[in-house]
Amino acid sequence: MKQPSLLLVDDDAAFRQVMAGELGRAGYEVDAVGTGEEAIQRVAATEPEVVLLDLRLPGMGGLETLKAIQASTPTTEVIMLTGHGSIDSAIESIRIGACDYVVKPCPLDELQIRIQRAIERRSLRQRTNILERGLTPPDLSNSFVGDSPEFRRLLNLINRVAPSDSTVLITGETGAGKDRVAKLIHARSSRRSRPFVVVECAALQESLFQSELFGHERGAFTGADHAKPGLFEVANGGTIFLDEIGEVSPATQTKLLRVLDTSTFRHVGSTREIRVDVRILTATNRDIPAMVRQGLFREDLFYRLSTITVEVPPLRARGSDVDLLAQHFAIVLNERFSSNKQISEAALQLLRRHNWPGNVRELLHVVEAAFVLCEGSQVMPEHLPAALQNAKPAPSPGALAQDSRLPTLQEAELTHIRMAIEATKGHRGNAARILGISERNLYRKLREHGLL
């Protein structure tokens, strides 16, 4: 296990030698210097976890050295060492950014406690930074690939919608890229530096869904042994993306409507109102207006969620984008696998013929599987799934004979689901992952198609 690294900065040579020895025997990796100028150079070179910095130094003083360390290496924690007559200056150092101060002479066990606290604070800050980066997706425009008129219209609409704070309903088929549209809207909004929180509505059990969204108090239900903030609180100041909003129960729909109307909610088991500033984006592949007519979805909530509707076109409606996407995926996969493979023209022709019921996600899986199976430098037709190899050329509009027709969307979806289940030998969890949907959503589709 790596020893925690310390830099001791003190102009008293005897103190440096004794303290460095004691801290080394206590399990730390200790370096020591006598001036602020040396400290700045050493911190820049080694980036120690904690600096023990004397407040009174010859030449560059302790406060000036502290500011320079913070400017060059903000991840390093600084503990000030001070005498009894310099408490005011030590307090000033805390205001500037030091994490703690100790008065010399300080017992070694107390100093070790302060050092351990500084290390824990540093670790907590690093984890927080990682989480914030994970919650804040970058602008995905470089990977948002297409040049068809349908794609350009979509991108133009995203650019107009993103700067507003309006609620957006994103519609489209499974795998068409609704989640990427949501991320791009957030990345191009004024909230881009704040969290982007994704909620998979279909993946959460109904009994836990409201607790996940709104949080709960300790003892609110069996197993709630501690209070927990909800995802709306996590997203405060940013954007929350409710994917597959059509799967939400009527009870949760009512609570969502209240959040939209008042920007407030309550933890499960609490009466205290919590106010948040959150932009809401939602997505669905279901026919919400039909669900409203059937009484399955609140009409007032639908109108609030669909202030702006962004419809993501299916891949089969995007023409030449199949080529562009396939080539883009090839570049990404070559980087991932450290390879230099290309998709042959014969394979591209088969990709163009396919109807792509699983849309962009299906295309990615097909190209990735072909890259894995291809041992040479070119992906050939034999590396593609049998369903694509045996596909007939799609007839042009108006050229269909009376006894031939394109499959309906429902038929194409059924065929694709069957292919996924066959490919996974009946394992529905794996089939759902291939299809890019939740297992709960797959079960619903199996019931709809009479396969259960």
Name its key features:
5-stranded parallel sheet; alpha/beta; Helicase, Ruva Protein, domain 3; Rossmann fold; 19 helices; 452 residues; globular
What is the total domain count? 4
CATH class of the largest domain: Alpha Beta
Helix content: 40-55%
Care to count the β-strands?
Answer: 16
Question: Your description of this structure?
Answer:
With 452 residues, this protein is of the alpha/beta class. It folds into 4 domains: 5-134, 3-Layer(aba) Sandwich (Rossmann fold); 141-313, Rossmann fold (3-Layer(aba) Sandwich); 316-393, Helicase, Ruva Protein, domain 3, CATH 1.10.8; 407-452, Arc Repressor Mutant, subunit A, CATH 1.10.10.60. 47% of the residues lie in helices and 14% in strands. The protein contains 19 helices and 16 strands. It has a 5-stranded parallel β-sheet with strand order 2-1-3-4-5, with helices on both faces. A 5-stranded parallel β-sheet has the order 7-10-13-6-14. A two-stranded antiparallel ribbon has the order 8-9. Strand 4 (77-82), helix 4 (87-96) and strand 5 (100-103) form a beta-alpha-beta unit. Helix 13 crosses helix 15, helix 17 (409-423) packs across helix 18 (428-435) and helix 18 (428-435) crosses helix 19 (439-448). The longest helix has 28 residues, at 108-135. The model is unreliable at 399-403 (pLDDT under 50).
List the helices and strands and how they pair.
Layout: E1 5-9, H1 13-25, E2 29-33, H2 36-46, E3 50-54, H3 62-72, E4 77-82, H4 87-96, E5 100-103, H5 108-135, H6 149-161, E6 168-171, H7 178-187, E7 196-200, H8 206-214, E8 215-216, E9 228-229, H9 231-234, E10 239-243, H10 250-262, E11 264-266, E12 273-275, E13 279-284, H11 288-293, H12 299-305, E14 308-311, H13 321-337, E15 342-343, H14 345-353, H15 359-373, E16 378-379, H16 386-389, H17 409-423, H18 428-435, H19 439-448
